[in-house]
Amino acid sequence: MAHQLSFDAEQFLAMPVKDRVHLCRQMAERAQELADAARPNYRDSYLEIAKQWLMLADEMERAESGAKIKTGH
Questions:
Q1: pLDDT at residue 4, as a whole number
Q2: Phi and psi of 45, rounded to 5°?
Q3: Number of independent structural domains in the chain
């Protein structure tokens, strides 16, 4: 995976939900890679960051699915 990930909140919020979900999953993957390479005293923090990115992606997917059901799309 390329290590050129960056995060800009304004750009993130302007993205379609599917792109935000994809970026969240990429960020989680990178955090996992960092955890795998980190010293033991940092590993848990990187794992928690990865977990939070995945939770955000899941929440956005659920909200998007719920919105589609409500609107019939």
A1: 81
A2: -65, -45
A3: 1
Instruction: Enumerate residues 6+ apart whose C-beta is below 8 A from 20.
Output: 12, 13, 57, 60
**What's the pTM value of the predicted model, to 2 decimals?**
0.84
State the residue range of the domain holding 44: 16-71
The residue assigned the tokens 């302007």 is 14
What tens digit of pLDDT does each residue of 23-66 get? 999 999 999 999 999 999 999 999 999 999 999 999 999 998 87
